[in-house]
Amino acid sequence: MTHPNAHLIGQQGGRRALATPALVLDKAAFEANIAAMAAAAKASGLALRPHAKTHKCKSVAARQLAAGAVGLCVAKTGEAEALIDTPGLKSLLITSPVLGPSAPNRVAALASRIDELLVVADSDLGADALSRAAVATGVTLGVVVDVDPGIHRTGCAGPDATVALAQRVAGLPGLRFAGLQCYAGHAQHIEDYETRVVIGQMALADLAESAARLTALGLAPPILTGGGTGTFAIEAGLGVLTELQAGSYVFMDVEYDAVVLTQGGASPFQPALLVEARVISANTADFVTIDAGFKSFATDGPKPVVIGGAPAGSEYAFMGDEHGAIFAPLALGSTVTLQVPHCDPTVNLYDFIHVVDGDTLVDLWPIEARGRSY
Amino acid sequence: MTHPNAHLIGQQGGRRALATPALVLDKAAFEANIAAMAAAAKASGLALRPHAKTHKCKSVAARQLAAGAVGLCVAKTGEAEALIDTPGLKSLLITSPVLGPSAPNRVAALASRIDELLVVADSDLGADALSRAAVATGVTLGVVVDVDPGIHRTGCAGPDATVALAQRVAGLPGLRFAGLQCYAGHAQHIEDYETRVVIGQMALADLAESAARLTALGLAPPILTGGGTGTFAIEAGLGVLTELQAGSYVFMDVEYDAVVLTQGGASPFQPALLVEARVISANTADFVTIDAGFKSFATDGPKPVVIGGAPAGSEYAFMGDEHGAIFAPLALGSTVTLQVPHCDPTVNLYDFIHVVDGDTLVDLWPIEARGRSY
Questions:
Q1: In angstroms, how far is CA A315 from the centroid of its own chain?
Q2: Nearest by CB: A294 against B98, B296, B298
Q3: Phi, psi of B349, deg, nearest 5
Q4: Hey, are the CB atoms on A100 and B19 less than 8 Å from each other?
Q5: Which residues in chain B have Cβ-Cβ distances shorter than 8 Å to A298?
Q6: A139 CB contacts (<8 Å, ≥6 apart)?
Q7: Chain A residues with CB-CB distance to B75 below 8 A
Q8: Does any domain span residue A58?
């Protein structure tokens, strides 16, 4: 079964003829976002290790690497398996703790397929399992000790636990102590810049103290990794991290558009990830119905925002699994363009990214790691 | 890349060793649900045409057909393409209007692969496009005219518009007038039974009047299709529909568990669709972190409900894209079983259903139509 939009590649106006709903990437905005973050990271002296949980796509990842990224992050082992052979990928970090009967072995099996495989741990049990898997497989795994930024989602609770786990890792066969991670997820979407600076700093306090103590113990962490699109402009000033895990900047969703990303207020990033949908019913006075609902947009955050095909300011409302309303008198069969509300879980609904240049469909990129949360 | 859980099929206790999160189907509950709805439909004299937008899976569909279903519903053309060769499938209804440059042709291309292909229309433009596609392809399409139940999502507005479109369809080349549809989505989740009877009746008033007028005009609708899991026990008493489109009954999610499905209050259906997740971090006093968040559960409705692996009444809370909290002191690496909040958009996140019999994994069923909203 070939994709019903494949025949439209290269056709002028093909974007308007897409089988909908379609996940669309504005090529110019996407390329500008990649260049802007690469430049910002370079200027700040931080290494950039983009988080691929956002896009789950080799074609996107390869372009981030070509622009100077030192490697990639993924959240899950399944994503690592799906993206391990991304062109140009030399270092891959799995940012969630890995546990269970099969996951440590799956991680170890990947290590021989890449220059550097890094994986997070926040418990003795997790580190010990990685050690056993590495020894059984005959590889060395780089283990990054995760530090809780204060939200208690993952990570060691405080410097004592962090230092102890790092020392344990350093002594386990098959493992190399590769550094510390601290991802302040709660700081990323604080809309006010100055508040975000304060919260970001607080979140990194335990990481900074742990790194200092480990250095004094002769176990200096090779990398200190964390940060996101919400704090990319702050991290250099805080002076703690050595590398940045930002992901959403490539797409810029409705959520991040509400965040004042830089001190001056200007955002270096543009909305690049869109959904093209179609009016499929128009029998009422107040709105028309489009073919995109809960199965086409993430529903954990704000609503999708209409940015094309309808008068400025037209509102979208969910109408169940398959449909949505646009409050505008649109023609039956016409297409509407919406910015995605929260990019990561929206991408996870689609198998292909439709790359567009204006109204021309230029490529279909498979989303190789879609659904690979395991 | 084979599925990391494939090697566990048939192993005693394999369910506890799954790579997680995994979408799990309790075989006994699932089979009981299929049998219960088949029996209820038979007793009521209504034909059963289960909605496959719920499960998107040939293996589930084939079992519904084997139990006596007259055919299937799908919401979208892409689902029809993915499920067209389901064993035992003789009649397939696409329940949303089909518009755009390619969709009518894609529908027509399917007609020769099945005994009966039915598709909904609610506009002249839509019916005309189907007629052109059918003529160009050399097939006959059965068109079901959609009637608005009062929520203005899709459907003709009132009996005048419905009768006029049915007459138009009957006169167009390549089309056959196949009946009327009225799906009262807003009635399905009203938790009180008596209120649901009243709303259900009101929603079908335009369908009933349209059917009577068409019959008087010599254009009796061959089928009157609609209803859902929320109204399955009501429809026979209302005496309007000839067939029932229920879908969620096969799985029973948290949402439908809150609905009093029958007059006596007893539900003939059991929770069958579950997510198996794993504790991957346990460094805080109040809760543990599992590996299932926004990418593993639908977020449009209630929260997932913990039903195994933790003390009764333990609560789940979302902790972002990849993680959730369970408020219980669980062991690191242990598994937790959760009932899915809203089944349709949850299934749409996964590529495989893990069929379990107790603690044994007995099969992996591909979810062929996952993501095919286009």
A1: 27
A2: B298
A3: -95, -15
A4: yes
A5: 294, 299
A6: A108, A111, A112, A117, A174
A7: 321-322
A8: yes
pLDDT on residue A1:
56
- Are B126 and B187 within one domain? yes
- Identify the closest residue of chain B to A158 by CA–CA distance: B283
Q: Kindly state whether residues A249 and A348 are assigned to the same domain.
A: no
The count of structural domains within chain A is 2
Domain annotation covers residue B245 = yes
Residues A119 and A160 in one domain: yes
CB contact under 8 A, A370 and B373: no
Q: What is the ipTM of this complex?
A: 0.96
CB atoms within 10 A of CB B312: 8
Q: Which of A218, A235, A257 is the last residue of a domain?
A: A257
Minimal-distance CA residue of chain B relative to A74: B322
- Residues B338, B191 share a domain: no
User: Per the domain annotation, does B74 fall within a domain?
Assistant: yes
Å between B165 CA and nearest CA of chain A? 12
Shared domain check, B147 and B251? yes
CATH of the domain at A284: 2.40.37.20
Between CA B15 and CA B164 the distance in angstroms is: 55
Name the amino acid, one letter, at A24.
Answer: V
The nearest CA of chain A is from the CA of B363 a distance in Å of 18
Are A1 and B156 in contact (CB < 8 Å)? no
Going by C-alpha positions, the residue among A319, A314, A274 that lies closest to residue A293 is A319
Q: How far apart, in whole angstroms, are the C-alpha atoms of residue A274 and residue A337?
A: 6
Q: Given an 8 Å threshold on Cβ–Cβ distance, is B283 in contact with A370?
A: no
Of B233, B257, B281, which closes a domain?
A: B257
Chain A, chain B: beta-carbon pairs less than 8 Å apart: 213
Of B101, B148, B300, the CB nearest to A283: B148
User: Cβ B81–A1 below 8 Å, yes or no?
Assistant: yes
Q: Tell me the nearest-neighbour CA distance from A96 into chain B, angstroms.
A: 8
Tens of pLDDT along B104-149? Answer: 999 999 999 999 999 999 999 999 999 999 999 999 999 999 999 9
pLDDT surpassing 60 at residue A342? yes
Token pair for A237: 């000033």
Write the pLDDT tens digit of every residue in A116-138. 999 999 999 999 999 999 999 99
Are B134 and B252 in a shared domain? yes
pLDDT in tens, chain B (374 residues): 589 999 999 998 999 999 999 999 999 999 999 999 999 999 999 999 999 999 999 999 999 999 999 999 999 999 999 999 999 999 999 999 999 999 999 999 999 999 999 999 999 999 999 999 999 999 999 999 999 999 999 999 999 999 999 999 999 999 999 999 999 888 888 888 889 888 888 899 999 999 999 999 999 999 999 999 999 888 888 899 999 999 999 999 999 988 888 888 888 999 999 999 999 999 999 999 999 999 999 999 999 999 999 999 999 999 999 999 999 999 999 999 999 999 999 999 999 999 999 999 999 999 999 999 99
Pairing of strands A273-281, A335-339: antiparallel
Minimal CA–CA distance to B187: which of B174, B179, B196?
A: B196
Residues of chain A contacting residue B76, judged by C-beta atoms under 8 Å apart: 291, 322
Alpha-carbon distance B102 to nearest alpha carbon in chain A (angstroms): 6
Tell me which residue range forms the domain holding A301.
6-25+268-366
The per-residue pLDDT for A188 is 84
A240 lies in the same domain as A159: yes
Q: Which residues of A touch B342 (CB under 8 A)?
A: 294
Q: Which two tokens stand for residue B83?
A: 């499920």
Sign of CA dihedral B220, B225, B230, B233: positive
Same domain, B191 and B309: no
Residues of A with Cβ-Cβ distance to B295 under 8 angstroms:
344-345, 348, 371, 373
Residues A333, B103: C-beta atoms closer than 8 Å: no
What does pLDDT average to over chain A?
96
B153 contacts in chain A (CB < 8 Å): 281, 289, 319-320, 323, 325
| Residue A239 forms part of a structural domain | yes
Q: How far apart are CA B185 and CA B150, in angstroms?
A: 10
Query: Average pLDDT for residues A44-62, to the nearest whole number?
Result: 97
CATH number of the domain within which A51 lies: 3.20.20.10
Smallest Cα–Cα separation from B111: which of B60, B36, B178?
B178
Which chain A positions have a beta carbon within 8 Å of B156's beta carbon?
A: 283
Query: Within 13 Å of residue A65, how many CA atoms lie on the same side as its CB?
Result: 19
